[in-house]
Design a protein that fits this description.
CATH class of one domain: Mainly Alpha
Helix content: 40-55%
Shape: globular
CATH topology of one domain: Glycosyltransferase
Bound molecules: 1-deoxymannojirimycin
Strand order of the largest sheet: 9-10-11
CATH architecture of one domain: Alpha/alpha barrel
Number of strands: 25
Number of helices: 18
Length: about 650
Amino acid sequence: MASTTGILPTYQRFVNGVPVPSFSRRSFRPREKYLILLVFMTFGVVCFGAFFYLPEFRGGSNAVNSVYNVYKHMQKAGPELLIPAPPRADEVGEAPGGGVPLRHDGLMHPDPHKVGDWAKLQAKIDEDGRVQASGQKVLEKPRIILAPNASSSARRPEDPAGPRIVVVTVAPARSDTYPAVTGGEDADPTARERRNKVKEMMKHAWDNYVRYAWGKNELRPISKRGHSASIFGSQSLGATIVDGLDTLYIMGLMDEFKQGRDWIEENLRFDNLASDLSLFEVTIRFVGGLLTCYALTGDVMFRDKAAQVTDKLLPAFQTQTGIPYSLVNLKTGSSKNYGWASGACSILSEFGTLHLEFSYLSDVTGNPVYRAKVDHIRRVLKNMDKPNGLYPNYLHPKTGKWGQHHISIGGLGDSFYEYLLKAWLQSGKTDTEARQMYDEAIDNILKHMMRVSPGGLTYISDMKFDRLEHKMGHLACFSGGLLGLGASTQRGDSTDHHMDVAQRVTNTCHEAYDRTATKLAPEVFRFTDAVEAKSLKSNEKYYILRPETFESYFVLWRLTKDPKYREWGWEAVQALEKYCRVSGGYSGLKNVYLEDTPKDDVQQSFFLAETLKYLYLLFSDDDLVSLDQWVFNTEGHPLPIRGANPYYRPATV
Ligand code: DMJ
């Protein structure tokens, strides 16, 4: 008979001295239950202890702190790993003063299970953002060293002063004076203060992009996730990184610059992009942004990436006329025009806005193929018959004939005129054909399309088949700066007239801002018997963080020194802060005439490339990115002027 009194308990049951098979039992005896419970409790205590003593979790005084610590570690992997993607903006409201997510099921009310935790976690995240924005780094701030003559980017982790980031700046050629590309503080303390504010705005826009949309094209600042406009195709190409990088550099935000630069080196690839990308947008944002970074730093990685992507764009030029298509599939090379474009035409502001980037790329690579493409476009345009000396917005790439006779210095036409003037400037004023075409085109536009409203506002309207449309698109507000730049760089019969119109049109654009509730201008504003410089249609009242008016303030400030341009720029900063800033970045507005306008939940990449750059330069000293040495591409990326700027960097370097 088996003993029942050993050290270890036996679980064999006996009935009348006969062992009972154990499988027939349906439950444990009480002693067995206690033992199992003890084992589970011991296991639980061990796990619980380990949870708090693992280094990742130690230090939190409560569960929220622990979650927060995990969140910080997961930031790089994307916040959605930890925090489920919030509902879309139209499904979500913000609790008064709280930022707590609300469910939207007809009535807005808080989800009782999540409110407390969300509020605490969000407070922690916001605090983190504030600490970083105020310059107190959670991590030790690396020392940034600009190395004007460096030949390598060697890190020195053994440096006792902490990690060191070297931003390579290879001096291009022997020169006594290198143009200022950072610094540039103004002597005026108010301007300095305002410039610091713009820099802080850039930090807010960038940091939130890094936190919520790193590697994606753009940021949705309200729903805090990535966004991609169709112009970028379906891939994540880090458009905000490439577009915003030179602004970071100019503002002296060098650790952020290095962070973006390394992402580009490791992640930006143009092979196998099997979707249609815009030739124009990729050129002005990617090629332009990369080339500026190459000019600023001499880092050949930027130049080589610019050449790689441009090579992938070249199939778009394989047309009967050499006028390229709008869209190109980077994998297959197949190209086409937008379905909405009149008669399947190519668009003037697109094929006419490649000259600066393609010319400079040829010069820095030694490969003439890029310049040949844009020189050919120039020849085609020069030889075309032009109605009243004007360039219609549409041209067919197969027939070489104009499409509908719509003419505009705003959308669909705008940057073609800009690149005529700027090609001449970029060439060190040797490309006189471009200047001549610019002067003729502008004279004819002003002659046929400029009007003064009864209230005395000068505007340049659109024209459709010889009939004026008495409106200006927001895009046309860059023309004040353009006309001023043209007038200030060469004297001629039209100089004074162009300078006068430049200032009057910029005044009109300022009025379009001033006549709204938000002090931000709509996409389109009209001039009728009923209204001046105001929108009439609901679908033209939006503002998408556009830069054009501020670009004109900047250029005209540099040219005239009239303090009103800085004041107007400061009004814009305040309006952006009041109506567009949200905890996750900056958003466009759906109706500028409503103070409580809905937002569009998109932080456009050009907000970093242009809007903030022009505002920053408006409050900087004239030496910083001098207009005598740099010419801005249409996306706000400064390219060096040949002969005037040693950063032009010949191909041999
Ligand atoms: C930018 O992408 C460029 O300035 C382009 O030429 C048209 N405008 C947008 C920003 O509004």
